[in-house]
Write a structure and sequence with these properties.
The chain is α/β, with parallel strands linked by helices. Helix content is 38%, strand content 17%. The chain has 13 helices and 16 strands. Strands 4-10-9-8-7-5-6 form a seven-stranded mixed beta sheet, sandwiched between helices. Strands 11, 12, 13, 15 and 16 form a five-stranded antiparallel beta sheet that branches. Helix 11 (338-360) runs parallel beside helix 13. The chain is globular and about 60 Å long.
């Protein structure tokens, strides 16, 4: 597939922009301060605007176009399903819904064999927490500070980053704790082994002071995404599993971003040989072509609702078009060895390439990740590890990161920037040549970031 750019049409782009500014209310934004790019098209790892500028997408949308844009087999599957059965209520058995559930269950770890479909990741988290609370009869849920779980009511309270603050009611039964992050260790650790052990002790102490009999669940992103792609140290997730078993707590892994090939395995949990009780997914399950998410449920929790109705549901749960896209996406990932490609790109191209950039750019303090899921932590000073911009910086305080982003775009790369980090999260089927193109653009952009170092 060769990405192409249609003939530039600035007038059409201006019309699209004008309609957007007149009528579209954007997420997470001060509406009068944004200037959205008008996108004319996308294909594979690229998208382009109405002025003829093409960008290599190192964001995968919002880390969900795991097979890139406009994959012809998935587009064809959606078209075929639309001609057969466009929609149907969730209470019925529909062939494509059943097949999507089967294919997902075959790939989830352990006995996570029942699938509850949602429209996206936040709804998956909402329902996973509801299931855990009903299964245990307890109310509290523990989540990490450096995390993002969604923007709906419970999910935003579970979230650990500043997007939670305006909506945090402090009454949702959520308790936050520190998960391991050696580069900025809250436990003064010097090794991964120390960080893992101290983080586990901190978690168990938190449970002790909250009252183990009040805690329904612990939810963790297997590999935190937007919060910084902090790969957990060896033994940590297994230790959380042991703590949950000790106190009868439901262990929920949030794989909304890390799942479906992103880390070089079908699910990030596969890297750590850990099986949660519930696992949430979305995004990469069908490359975001039609909204779909869900909860994979183990046998014990599923049995809770054998005779007792589950008090939750969605009008579009298991929507046929979304499920057709999921079936086709999973098949494409198998046939084209997309998961294997993500592992190869991470091990042989992105990982070595990003570490080489770190050696040459004083603004890079830390490189971390796996598969096609990487973060560069940018700093003013490598010795002090002072972030290039303050936590939750905005406006002039965030100028260094804004300059980095502008430089990347000037070089044809659309970057993923959050706080003092830039993430390298291209499509899971990104080619070696495309990944190297992205690294070259990052190299140039980091020279701009270097200007702000001490």
């Amino acid at each position: 597939m060769t990405p192409h750019v249609a003939a530039p049409d600035p007038q059409a782009g201006a019309a699209v922009k004008a309609a957007d500014r007149a009528h579209v209310f954007h997420s997470w934004s001060a509406q009068g301060l944004i200037d959205p790019l008008a996108v004319a098209g996308a294909e594979g790892s690229y998208f382009w605007d109405y002025d003829g500028n093409r960008y290599l997408d190192f964001t995968s949308g919002l880390v969900y176009t795991n097979i890139g844009y406009q994959h012809p087999k998935v587009v064809a599957a959606i078209q075929e399903q639309a001609g057969k059965l466009t929609t149907f209520a969730p209470a019925f058995a529909i062939d494509v819904r059943s097949e999507a559930a089967r294919l997902i269950a075959e790939r989830t770890p352990g006995d996570l064999d029942k699938i509850f479909f949602t429209n996206g990741g936040a709804e998956a988290v909402e329902n996973a927490v509801r299931m855990a609370r009903l299964h245990t009869g307890r109310t509290k849920v523990l989540s990490a500070y450096r995390s993002y779980h969604g923007a709906t009511s419970t999910a935003i309270n579970l979230t650990g980053d500043p997007r939670r603050w305006p909506s945090d009611t402090a009454s949702a039964g959520v308790v936050h704790f520190w998960a391991p992050f050696l580069y900025r260790s809250p436990f003064y650790s010097t090794t991964e082994a120390e960080e893992s052990a101290r983080a586990l002790q901190h978690l168990e102490d938190t449970i002790a002071f909250e009252g183990p009999a009040t805690v329904a669940a612990i939810i963790l992103e297997t590999v935190p995404g937007t919060a910084g792609i902090m790969t957990p140290p060896p033994g940590y997730l297994a230790g959380v599993r042991e703590i949950c078993d000790k106190y009868g707590i439901v262990f929920i892994l949030d794989e909304v971003m890390a799942g479906f090939g992103r880390t070089g395995k079908w699910f990030a949990a596969d890297h750590f040989d850990v099986v949660p009780d519930l696992m949430t997914f979305a995004k990469g399950v069908n490359s975001g072509y039609v909204p779909l998410g869900g909860v994979a449920i183990n046998a014990e929790i599923a049995a809770t609702f054998d005779k007792r109705p589950y008090p939750g549901g969605l009008t579009y749960s298991g929507h046929p078009l979304a499920c057709a896209a999921a079936v086709a996406t999973i098949q494409v990932m198998e046939d084209e060895k997309v998961v294997e490609n993500a592992a190869h790109i991470g091990e042989n191209v992105l990982g070595p390439g990003l570490r080489e950039l770190a050696e040459r750019h004083p603004s890079v303090g830390d490189v971390r990740g796996m598969g096609v899921f990487w973060a560069l932590e940018l700093v003013k000073n490598r010795e002090t590890r002072e972030p290039l911009v303050p936590y939750n910086a905005a406006g002039e305080a965030a100028a260094p990161m804004a300059a980095l982003g502008a430089a990347a775009k000037k070089n044809g790369l659309w970057p993923f920037i959050n706080m003092n980090r830039t993430h390298a999260v291209p499509a899971c089927n990104v080619s070696e040549a495309e990944a190297k193109e992205g690294l070259a653009a990052l190299d140039a952009a980091l020279s701009v970031a270097d200007e702000y170092t001490a």
